[in-house]
Amino acid sequence: MSPVTAHAVVRWLERVRRVDLSRLPPEWSNLRRAQCGCDHLRMSLDDAREAILPSRLHCYLDLDPRAVRGADRVLVVRERRVVTVLAAETRVLNQPEAA
């Protein structure tokens, strides 16, 4: 099972891939919204989760980070699960500044 939640996939689609999901019914679950967004990009939900956090990097979640910064995104981590995705230019609270 992937440590990337459906909510994180939705936020990645919106904030990183710039997919507009605002027209989807608000009562849809995050899973259904994520699947619809992935369909729009012609990719599977598993492929999206792998793009967000490649399986070779799952071991780093054992270090229990609060956030993982990538080139185009910041992954917010809680209890070894990626719970949301921010755009790379977003400042993460409680993270030390680079010197």
Can you tell me about this structure?
This protein has 99 residues and is α+β, with helices and mostly antiparallel strands. It has one domain (6-87). 29% of the residues lie in helices and 16% in strands. It contains three helices and three strands; from the N terminus they run H-H-H-E-E-E. The protein has helices spanning 6-15, 30-40, 45-52; strands spanning 67-69, 73-78, 81-87. A three-stranded antiparallel β-sheet has the order 1-2-3. Helix 1 packs across helix 2 (30-40). The longest helix has 11 residues, at 30-40. The termini are far apart.
Fraction in beta strands? 15-25%
Low-confidence stretches: none
Tally of separate domains: 1
- Our measurement of the CA-to-CA distance between the termini, rounded to an integer number of angstroms, reads 36 Å
Number of helices in the DSSP assignment: 3
Give the mean pLDDT: 91
Rg, rounded, reads 13 Å
Largest sheet: 3 strands, antiparallel
- SSE sequence, one letter per element: HHHEEE
Helix fraction by DSSP (H/I, runs of at least 4): 25-40%
Question: What topology emerges from the helices and strands here?
Answer:
Elements (H helix, E strand, L loop, with lengths): L5 H10 L14 H11 L4 H8 L14 E3 L3 E6 L2 E7 L12
Antiparallel strand pairs: 1-2, 2-3
Helix pairs in contact: 1-2
